[in-house]
Design a protein that fits this description.
The structure is a single chain. The protein is of the alpha+beta class and about 270 residues long. About 30% of the residues lie in helices and about 30% in strands. The chain has 8 helices and 12 strands. A 7-stranded mixed β-sheet has the order 1-2-3-7-6-5-4, sandwiched between helices. A 5-stranded antiparallel β-sheet has the order 11-10-9-8-12. Helix 3 crosses helix 6 and helix 3 packs across helix 7. The chain is globular and about 55 Å long. It starts with 5 loop residues before the first helix and ends with a helix.
Length: about 270
């Protein structure tokens, strides 16, 4: 039984807002879709959780496999309408996962734009969506983590290398422990970065990955076959990843339009 014991979770939460409202389901198409549907009428910090998800494709057609044994949560967040926080909140969700696992003694890596990796294998992913209603904007941070999905299930259903936390570390990580640490980190990073404007800790694990490749990358628009050599500049204050075009002009990677691959990966 992978359902969350909310009384147990609540005892572990150190938050004022995030996770103080909670709803879970045995099965959903995706927690993101459900969170977007209820966001207009939900309080700030509401968390939507599912035991499994049956949506099997991402927006760009990549595989999505979410059986029991994974932690699938979407958190509804209210922010001001002064700017678009989507990119920053995607980074924030990944960093929250990175820090939560570090707290458990687990060494992970964040592969831009949204993959959570351990030992070169995918352990999870983070996404950010938003919904605008009556000139009011709410954001949805979705984090999926393979906590105890069996290896044979992953190998049968996913082409890319993937693994679960309990298998790598041969330890029993409870869903409540993992979820509480995640939600605690999300609220802390919102307070320090979004509100306090101090984002160094938020960027650091993402920059560690990019720096391995000396900022060299290839970029292309979705649907195109040709990759273009580019130089990564770094993250701006909005959380967008900047790159230098071949004509010497700077631009940012719009993840809705572009895909990016670090050159070292291409040469493996």
């Amino acid at each position: 039984d992978f359902l969350i014991d909310y009384n147990c979770l609540k005892e572990k939460l150190k938050t004022d807002i995030i996770g103080r409202y909670f709803i879970q389901f045995e099965s959903l198409q995706s927690t993101t879709r459900k969170a977007k549907a209820i966001a207009p009428h939900s309080p700030d910090g509401m968390v939507v959780c599912a035991e499994n998800q049956w949506e099997d494709k991402t927006k760009h057609g990549k595989e999505w496999f979410s059986p029991p044994g994974g932690l699938y949560i979407s958190t509804i967040i209210s922010l001001d309408n002064k700017r678009d926080y989507s990119s920053l909140l995607t980074l924030l969700g990944g960093t929250a996962a990175y820090q939560a696992m570090k707290e458990l003694g687990l060494n992970s890596e964040l592969k831009w734009p949204n993959d959570i990796m351990i030992e070169g294998k995918k352990i999870g992913a983070v996404f950010c969506d938003s919904i605008n209603y009556d000139n009011h904007l709410k954001y949805i941070i979705t984090i999926n983590l393979n906590v105890s999905i069996k290896r044979e299930l992953l190998e049968k259903n996913i082409d890319c290398p993937a693994i679960s936390l309990n298998e790598i570390y041969d330890m029993d990580i409870t869903m409540e422990d993992m979820m509480a640490k995640l939600l605690n980190r999300i609220e802390h990073l919102i307070e320090t970065c979004i509100i306090g404007k101090k984002c160094e800790d938020l960027y650091e694990p993402w920059e560690q990955y990019i720096n391995q490749f000396n900022n060299h990358a290839r970029i292309r628009k979705y649907g195109n076959k040709k990759w273009i050599d580019s130089t990564i500049i770094g993250f701006n204050n909005s959380g967008d990843l900047g790159f230098m075009q071949s004509n010497g002009m700077p631009d940012v990677v719009d993840t809705k339009k572009y895909e990016i691959m670090m050159i070292k990966e291409l040469n493996r």
